[in-house]
């Protein structure tokens, strides 16, 4: 009698455990399916998140629109996750960079340009895929930030530029939970297949990452 009773109880307990585990797995599949559906929805033709013309993602930035030929409309991070920031140098003046990004024949542009005096202009929404890295995968997963100056000129990297750019990158990293390290904040030169050398040997990576971390701490 005792053994038979234990067997029944054991069988009942096993059945409940199996049921609970099966239910949890099913719930997990429902959540996974919902997330997949969200991603698929934002990839559907004609589907797009609500937008307001002139909106910026970084409150301290001004807005100047790039040519639509220099980026691809998207709905990141729902359709493409964002896990990287790519640092560029304009190899010219701020004004010339703005003009180039407004030129549809250029077929390239970054999300932001940081001027030597620290002023920031946003030209492409972070939602959208900017043609800035010369690599489709990196374009889809990153935010591109241009900095006014010439790679060979160390005077281009002013205190104001470092500080403003670090605040911008810190905000981007906070928004998309991007680690503040050299695996996730990279130079254009580090993009596979790139023929660019920016940001070059005069860009102080240690200083920049320290400023980004400090800005993250201040925001937190």
UniProtKB/TrEMBL annotation:
Keyword flag Cell wall biogenesis/degradation: yes
Reaction catalysis annotation: Hydrolyzes the link between N-acetylmuramoyl residues and L-amino acid residues in certain cell-wall glycopeptides
rRNA-binding in keyword set: no
The entry's keywords: Cell wall biogenesis/degradation, Hydrolase
CDD domains, alphabetized: PGRP (cd06583)
Occurrences of domain N-acetylmuramoyl-L-alanine amidase (ranges): 71-200
A Pfam family: Amidase_2
EC number annotated for this UniProt entry: 3.5.1.28
Domain of life: Bacteria
GO biological process: cell wall organization; peptidoglycan catabolic process; peptidoglycan turnover
GO molecular function terms noted in the UniProt entry: N-acetylmuramoyl-L-alanine amidase activity
Protein name per Swiss-Prot or TrEMBL: N-acetylmuramoyl-L-alanine amidase
